[in-house]
Amino acid sequence: MTITATMVKELRERTGSGMMECKKALAETQGDLEAAVELMRKAGLAKADKKSGRTAAEGTISIQVSDDAHRAAIVEVNCETDFVGKGEDFLAFCDAVARTVLASDAASPEALAEQTLAGGQATVEQVRRELIAKIGENISVRRFARFDSANGLVAAYRHGSRIGVLVEFTGDATVGKDVAMHVAASKPVCVDETGVPADVIAKEREIFAAQAEASGKPANIVEKMVDGRIKKFLGEVTLLGQPFVKDPEQTVAQLLKAKGSEVMRFVRFEVGEGIEKVESNFAEEVMAQVRGS
Question: Model's pTM, two decimal places?
């Protein structure tokens, strides 16, 4: 059977695959378009499984906020290269995943994978694997968070596409936005010192004590020095103790008090943090793909 350009074009539109792949699939199925689509899906999903072990440390942060600002969702979706991370298909998938998180009660990436992706009929996992087959890179929905505030509001801030923040707070909406921007810039680990694990404080105290004792000062002076260092440490790692980025003359705690606001919690995601990236030669990767095609 003759494979026409029109048949190839239609198959490309339905699968997003390359011209030669479409022509080959149509030839194998004697021009049966539906059979070709199914063949390519199976082949693509098989490729997706092979790519699942590859490191994905690039990507984007997507955020969705409800109209009443009482609920919000943030999600990190990873891919292998910055180029794919800026692609239209990848970004559309990320936004749909964020909408799915906001609308569902999934508590883990595994549970989210079984949810129907917002705006479609397939699950998050099905669409993810099909996108891997289409793009040719591993894609991972790494983590997400959902805030549901009955008595407060949720502010969101995204710095570019790589850093995202949600803040649950009470008070003026402008304050929430400012605090979210502060969290993005200053990377606090918790709201106040009650959120710093006791073992972390004990370890810092041990280190500071060893440094102070080396000075040869009396024990009572050493204790005061250590207390001062611990106070400074807590100010550096807690949101309320940090100098406010827009006005370093006051702390975030002082800002919130002046505005009659309170921060209950926050979450900050940065693309790829904690993922060990594999160094690679881009030219060699391209040549390997050419040889394998």
Answer: 0.75
